[in-house]
Write a structure and sequence with these properties.
CATH topology: Immunoglobulin-like
Keywords: Copper, Metal-binding, Oxidoreductase, Repeat
Number of domains: 1
Distance between the termini: 34 Å
CATH class: Mainly Beta
Catalytic activity: nitric oxide + Fe(III)-[cytochrome c] + H2O = Fe(II)-[cytochrome c] + nitrite + 2 H(+)
Number of strands: 7
Oligomer: single chain
Protein name: Copper-containing nitrite reductase
Enzyme class: oxidoreductase
Domain Plastocyanin-like: 61-142
Strand order of the largest sheet: 2-1-3-5
Largest sheet: 4 strands, mixed
Structural class: mainly beta
CATH superfamily: Cupredoxins -  blue copper proteins
Shape: globular
Length: 155
C-alpha cells in the first residue's frame, strides 16, 4: 500500500530558498555549446522554430476521472519535434499568466548544462537555442523548482 502525496501539504520553503540562492547548478565550460539565438540563426544552418506553451490541463483518464497534467501545448506526450542533425533548434516556452506554477523545459537532445533550462514563471516567456549535434531520439520534459513530479514528453 502506497502513501498519497499531497502537494498542498509539502514544505517547499527549502526548495524556494535553494532557487533564490541560484539553485543547484551544474557548471559546464562556456565553449560546451553555443546558445545565442542570434549567432546560431546567422550560422547558415537550417533553423527550426518551436513554440511551446507550458500549462496544467485536466486530462480524462480511465474510470471517468481526470488527471491534472503538466503539458506542453495541452497534450501528453508533448508535440514531437523533428529536426536533422546539425540544424538549429530555437524553442520558445510560454507560461500563461493564469498558470498555477512555473514550468521548465529540460532538453536532453541539447547536450547543454541543465541550468540553461531553468523554470519559467507564470506570465513569462523564455527562448532556448542550440545545435542538434547528435542524431537520435531524445526526451524533453517539464522541470522546475516547485514540481513534485515530472511528466515525460518525447523529442
Amino acid at each position: 500500500s502506497g502513501q498519497a502525496l499531497d502537494i498542498n501539504k509539502m514544505d517547499v520553503d527549502v526548495l524556494e530558498q535553494i532557487h533564490q540562492m541560484g539553485g543547484l547548478q551544474l557548471v559546464m565550460p562556456q565553449a560546451f555549446a553555443e546558445t545565442d539565438c542570434g549567432v546560431l540563426a546567422d550560422s547558415g544552418r537550417t533553423v527550426h522554430e518551436f513554440d511551446l506553451t507550458g500549462e496544467s490541463v485536466e486530462l480524462p483518464i480511465m474510470g471517468g476521472k481526470t488527471y491534472n497534467a503538466m503539458t506542453f501545448n495541452g497534450q501528453v506526450p508533448g508535440p514531437t519535434l523533428r529536426v536533422t542533425q546539425g540544424d538549429v533548434v530555437q524553442m520558445t516556452l510560454v507560461i500563461p499568466a493564469d498558470e498555477v506554477t512555473g514550468h521548465g523545459n529540460d532538453m536532453h537532445a541539447s547536450q547543454m548544462s541543465a541550468t540553461y533550462f531553468d523554470s519559467v514563471n507564470p506570465g513569462e516567456t523564455s527562448q532556448y537555442c542550440y545545435i542538434a549535434e547528435s542524431a537520435g531520439v531524445f526526451k524533453y520534459h517539464c522541470s522546475g523548482v516547485h514540481l513534485a513530479g515530472m511528466d515525460q514528453h518525447v523529442l
